[in-house]
Write the structure tokens for this entry.
Amino acid sequence: MRVAAREAQAADVAVLTDMYRMLEDEMTALHPMWPLADGLAEPVEESLEAAISEPDVWVWVGEIEEVPFGFLVARVERMLPQGGGAEVGSIRMVFSHPDAREVGVAEAMRDAALAEFRNRNITRFDAHVLPGHRLAKNFFEAGGFSARSIIMHHDDHPGERPGRDPRRL
């Protein structure tokens, strides 16, 4: 079985969108805030097209026998001025189709993203993981990552969508 990662192309947007919606369902089940603050801006197709063409953003497609089974979105983020202009390679999201987990798809994409960052002389890396997402946490820890920050959140109106008048729900 041949597992590989490649950079996404514009022709991949439809399959990436389908996989993103699967990721969105998984993440929303863990935390309803995810699609509102951590996911991609709607329309997702346009966000993916923009990410694919952006010079400091990479979208990787993970494949088994040249069939897409996952994707990863990573970008360069700059540290604060006191960080001396250093950059951080940030993996913003990673998804492997449930049928393709634990066969190396996510590892191939993660390793490709880290190699690209290292080619740009970036030596610090972040990966965004939701609290309670044990599989993602274990995956990144197995790759040498460790937690450096946890974002705490409180919602006075759980279940309410921002921007909507709560009296009209």
The first helix runs from residue 13 to 30. Residues 24 and 35 are 6 Å apart (CA to CA). The beta strands are 3-7, 57-64, 67-78, 87-96, 124-127. The chain is about 35% helix and 25% strand.
